[in-house]
């Protein structure tokens, strides 16, 4: 490009240079359910703004303000309050994006609003003829409107429905998220394990599904008593709290749930015993809870429903999430590099930028190590002239101390030393 004539000094500012690979948000939860919006909006026109819309909630007081009060039969206020109850050290409750699928003018018995009329199809959602999304379909457009994708999907009181779980699986795969699904209330431990069998209701090997059992007991201000609640809403809250306090590379297991007052069904936990209820459930790929003297009720499990079928580290909840976060951060960074001149310096700069991000993650304790390299072997001259370039990402998330084994031996030499014996 020819320069214009100029006589005298000038400064030309260039905005090029190495970019920074930025962390993406992990503590973003997308939750679908029902809310008593008729209690805060007087007309159908007003209520439309709270039906099948993404409602962002960052503070506890926004629950009643945007969704209505906690009320029997409505899942969202209860679920989101359970999440905020897990906040640690003033870290906040992350970002919760709620979608209310209840329409009091449609879901009713006679003239009375009735949340039990909401179906799996309402929760799953659809696209209108004009392309307007509803239900879980609203998760897909989050980046365009809010600038981030959800990393945790939940639908307490609806995940026992096969159609809802199937949709959550689709969305989790598309959005690089995990989803939490409750096993039905009332199951025995054996029935919960059998649900994972070939003919069971939860026969899946998804590395994005976290299956929870049993339901938990917590205080319900509506009835002023302890009530049984879905585990999924409590685990979502613990995952948010753990992300904000420690980082997404920490396992959500063995965290005390301070607001949980009991389990739907007593589970026997004996430290060191292979035949405990928790061991049987974890062995079947079910995330459970435990309690022992002076410990409080705690989350208990490290693996997704990918276990026991999957044999690689992808089966661990924290590994799946670390990889998702690294992949998404790299993807966002690379978007800005598309359609730029593919000079050697440019390709090397891309390599160094992502490599620096991996070194940062290693320093933070999320990775044992990582490496990002321009693949000069796989990329051919034909590829280069066709605009295609290959990079390779290698990394290994830090493992979790799931099992600690102590080999114990009886050593009579200690008696010899203590007593001053010659042999």
Automatic annotation (TrEMBL):
Residues 137-305 form the Tail sheath protein subtilisin-like domain. It comes from the Bacteria. Residues 314-409 form the Tail sheath protein C-terminal domain. Transmembrane segments: none annotated. Pfam families: Phage_sheath_1, Phage_sheath_1C. Belongs to the myoviridae tail sheath protein family. This is Prophage major tail sheath protein. The lineage of its organism: Bacteria, Pseudomonadati, Pseudomonadota, Alphaproteobacteria, Hyphomicrobiales.
């Amino acid at each position: 490009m020819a320069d214009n004539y100029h006589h005298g000094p000038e400064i030309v500012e260039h905005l090029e240079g190495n970019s920074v690979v930025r962390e993406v948000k992990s503590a973003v939860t997308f939750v679908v359910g029902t809310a008593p919006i008729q209690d805060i909006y007087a007309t159908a026109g007003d209520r439309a703004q709270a039906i099948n819309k993404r409602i962002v909630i960052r503070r506890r007081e926004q629950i009643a303000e945007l969704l209505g009060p906690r009320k029997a039969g409505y899942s969202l206020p209860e679920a989101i309050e359970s999440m905020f109850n897990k906040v640690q050290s003033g870290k906040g409750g992350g970002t919760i994006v709620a979608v209310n699928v209840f329409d009091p003018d449609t879901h009713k018995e006679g003239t009375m609003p009735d949340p039990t009329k909401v179906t799996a199809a309402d929760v799953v959602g659809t696209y209108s003829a004009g392309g307007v999304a509803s239900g879980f379909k609203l998760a897909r457009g989050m980046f365009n409107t809010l600038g981030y994708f959800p990393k945790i999907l939940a639908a307490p009181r609806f995940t026992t429905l096969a159609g809802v779980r199937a949709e959550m699986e689709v969305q989790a795969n598309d959005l690089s998220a995990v989803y939490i699904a409750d096993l039905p209330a009332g199951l025995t431990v054996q029935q919960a394990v059998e649900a994972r069998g070939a003919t069971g209701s939860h026969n899946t090997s998804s590395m994005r599904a976290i299956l929870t059992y049993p339901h938990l007991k917590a205080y319900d201000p509506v009835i002023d008593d302890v009530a049984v609640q879905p585990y999924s809403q409590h685990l979502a809250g613990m995952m948010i709290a753990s992300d904000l306090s420690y980082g997404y590379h920490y396992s959500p297991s063995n965290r005390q749930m301070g607001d949980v007052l009991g389990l739907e069904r007593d589970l026997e936990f004996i430290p060191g015993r292979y035949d405990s209820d928790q061991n049987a459930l974890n062995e079947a790929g079910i995330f459970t809870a435990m309690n022992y003297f002076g410990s409080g009720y705690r989350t208990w499990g490290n693996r997704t429903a990918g276990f026991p079928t999957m044999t690689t580290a992808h089966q661990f909840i924290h590994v799946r999430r670390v990889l998702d976060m690294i992949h998404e951060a790299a993807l966002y960074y690379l978007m800005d590099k598309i359609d730029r001149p593919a000079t050697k310096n440019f390709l090397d700069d891309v390599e160094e930028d992502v490599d620096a991000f991996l070194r940062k993650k290693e320093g933070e304790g999320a990775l044992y190590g990582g490496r990002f390299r321009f693949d000069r072997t796989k990329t051919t001259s034909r590829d280069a002239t066709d605009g295609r370039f290959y990079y390779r990402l290698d990394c290994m998330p830090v493992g979790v101390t799931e099992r600690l084994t102590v080999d114990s031996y009886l050593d009579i030499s200690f008696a010899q030393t203590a007593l001053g014996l010659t042999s």
